[in-house]
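Checked the freezer inventory, then went back to the computational side. Two predictions to log before the end of the day. The first one is the construct we discussed on Monday; recording sequence and tokens without edits.
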Amino acid sequence: MKPSRIQLLQAMPIFGGIKDDVLAFLVEQTTSVTVPQGRFFFREGERGEAMYVLEEGEVAVVKSWEGRGYVLKRMSRGDSFGEMALVDLCPRSASVKATRDTRALELDGELLLKLYEHDMEQFTLIQMNVAREISRRLRVADERIFRAKMDVTVLGGEDHAYTF
């Protein structure tokens, strides 16, 4: 099982460039979490202390608004979620619900502290990779916001386009 977990991590941008022995160190110390279909890994507003890497199953990232949940994204094997909690230490910005029986690796702040003590250079590389992934997701969100705003602009005529 460990070799398949290492291969799973190697295929992810967050663990790009990480040495095999460091990935083995992480896999040996990580916790596997099983969440049945319909249950939550965590809910929006809860304190975040870990990120997750999906080994099997599927989840939906859900944002609440006016008492209703809206699916922002679906994720499956090899995807990760919860990274922001390891960077900004703020409450969860969305909920993550298992849409099928799901198993994920849980990497918490304590494990990353152990990695820092074990290999500071590789710890730093993972942190940089997490920042890159969050930045990539922010770019996608910005593009979606822009496109939605342009649709409102064209339909509603409320805003004006400017040429630079």
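The second is the one RB wanted added to the comparison set:
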Amino acid sequence: MRNPFRSEQDAFRFLLATIAYFVLIVVASLVNKWLGFAVFVLLSLAALYYAFGRSREEPAPRVAPTLPHPEGERRILVVANETVGGRALQDVIREKSEGVQEHVLVVSPALNSPLRHLASDEDQARADAQARLDRSMAKLREAGISARGEVGDADPLQAIEDALRTFGPDEIVISTHPEGRSHWLERGVVSGARDRFAVPVTHVVVDLDAEQEEVR
């Protein structure tokens, strides 16, 4: 099922609005039960108007790269975490960079817990993401793939949008764990990227457990 929110920020705003909704109703009810009922009706009508009004909005224009680069140069944006070192992803990167001068940027979103996100505590999340990225970049170098990496926004879609402005990729490759083990697939990150960005999006499924079993 696709995530009804466009980003984690939308989800947190919805949570805060819901809390405010109930608090206002309770406070008004303590003053007078009829006042509480009136506040409930007014707030409910406002929420319905907002929800249906949003559904009638025109879809947002798809975001395209804004950074030009020379012909014959191919820029590949890879968005992944633990799966960056997977053999399946390495094969895709090689295939897409064949016959051209490739530039590969690997972005690892700084995944954070909702509580830490609300508290604006992202230091540990970024440190963990950097450690994962360093290990993954070492595996890519061992495989003969030249790439650079950076830690991105906690929201994978926002991390992609940021890279579109600073890197200007020709293609986006999103690497995830298999279905059932991937939080990104549950959140609709791949489908959301295809809807939101005017750049070809390739989804690569990396089963690290299966690859390790083959090696053994």
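For RB: Strands lie at 73-79, 101-109, 148-152, 171-176, 201-205. Residues 8-55 form one domain. Let me know if you want it refolded.
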